[in-house]
Specification:
By secondary structure, the protein is α/β, with parallel strands linked by helices. It is built from 5 helices and 15 strands. The protein has 2 domains: about 5-45 and about 150-205 and about 310-355, NAD(P)-binding Rossmann-like Domain (Rossmann fold, 3-Layer(aba) Sandwich), CATH 3.40.50; about 85-145 and about 210-305, D-Amino Acid Oxidase, Chain A, domain 2. Strands 3, 4, 5, 8, 9, 10, 11, 12 and 13 form a 9-stranded mixed β-sheet that branches. Strands 6-2-1-7-15-14 form a 6-stranded mixed β-sheet, with helices on one face. The two termini are about 25 Å apart. Belongs to the DAMOX/DASOX family.
Length: about 375
């Protein structure tokens, strides 16, 4: 039996879902999206991401990140063309700003966090290693992704498995049913439209809101990655530094501004971002201050924050077609991408079984052994 699947959305969640689904010979997958890798648009969040692994889930919701880390680690070690590299990461916490920490970041700064047994080389920082003005910190090995390379790599992997890509602007999720490259109506639609699900007909999820992120991308190199739990500049502002793999530049951040749709970079915020970066990491410019930064560009992305957390669920569209939703990842889309896509495959396989298919002999979802 052939399963005709249309994935709506070509961000990291849609592409990863398409990739894992394409590993089954019974699935014919089409990705339809307004924006594709190579585009830069405020409606398309994935290119603007850092992107790295900084665990953001509480332990009870940590499956997505737990299940993603082994695959990102494998890709980093074995697939250099994916554009991912290892970096040590230092996390510093302000207890005095506990009530003003930027939204969505709190679990990263928890005492005795769940990820201390998941991410390699975890240790608590000594007092003299903590950034002045902070109270505590930890260190672990993480990764940083060059989104330009990685999104394109995902497209290539999907295409190698027979996935077809089509540009389309959807006003209603039902329209995806007719967009398969096979010419047949889709019996499964995967909705990975991120913040677009707020206004997409047939979904219109009012629990979605943007969490605006503003960054500065510079040529300056710096190791390790750094993240702090808050700043004196207000609850929507954070300090983090991460160097993308393969010449992707160094990301200086940032903001986590809930409900803010503004697409243009704010010059005043940019100055504060740069000042915070050289304050927490003087080596970034060799002590020259922000004048020593070589700016590539300023950027703004809208994280798809969803009250109540990510939505990965199945629902019936009609008597012939089911929808599997995978959206609302806020700021952790990359670091939860494989875990969430794995769940999409589980839901799709459940539909296939109900339709009478025998799934014995299906390939592994991941190349690593779960």
């Amino acid at each position: 039996m052939v399963n005709v699947i249309v994935v709506a959305g070509a961000g990291v969640s849609g592409l990863t879902s398409a990739l894992l689904l394409s590993r089954s010979k019974g699935n014919k997958v089409t990705v339809v999206a307004k924006h594709m890798p190579g585009d830069y648009d405020i409606e398309y969040a994935s290119p603007w991401a850092g992107a790295n692994v900084l665990p953001m889930a509480f332990e009870e919701d940590s499956r997505w990140e737990r299940r993603t880390w082994p695959e990102l680690k494998r890709l980093t070690e074995q697939v250099p063309e994916a554009g991912i590299h290892f970096q040590s990461n230092d996390v510093h916490s302000f207890s005095r700003l506990k009530d003003a920490q930027a939204a969505g970041a709190d679990p990263l700064f928890s005492a005795n966090p769940w990820y201390n047994t998941v991410l390699p080389d975890y240790r608590e920082l000594n007092h003299d290693e903590v950034i002045p003005g902070h109270d505590s910190g930890c260190e672990f090995t993480s990764v940083c992704i060059n989104t330009v390379i990685y999104l394109s790599w995902l497209v290539g992997q999907c295409a190698k498995n027979g996935v077809v890509f089509k540009r389309a602007v959807l006003s209603d999720i039902r329209e995806a049913k007719a967009l398969s490259h096979t010419g047949q109506p889709a019996n499964i639609i995967v909705n990975a439209t991120a913040l677009g699900s707020l206004k997409l007909g047939g979904v219109e999820d009012s629990s979605l809101t943007p969490a605006r992120g503003q960054v500065v991308v510079v040529r300056n190199e710096f190791h390790p990655m750094v993240a702090t739990s808050g700043t004196d500049d207000g609850p929507t502002e954070m300090a983090y530094i991460m160097q993308r793999a393969a010449g992707g530049g160094t990301i200086l951040g940032g903001t986590y501004d809930m409900g803010n749709w503004e697409s243009a970079p704010d010059p005043n915020i940019a100055i504060r971002i740069m000042k915070r970066a050289v304050q927490v990491a003087p080596g970034l410019t060799g002590g020259k201050g922000i004048e020593g930064l070589s700016v590539i560009r300023h950027g703004v992305g809208l994280r798809p924050y969803r009250k109540g957390g990510v939505r990965i669920a199945e629902e019936a569209l009609d008597g012939e077609t089911s929808i599997v939703h995978n959206y609302g990842h806020a700021g952790w889309g990359y670091q939860g991408s494989y875990g969430c896509a794995e769940r999409v495959v589980e839901l799709v396989n459940g539909i296939r079984k109900r339709n009478g298919e025998k799934l014995d002999g299906e390939p592994k979802v991941f190349e690593w052994d779960p």
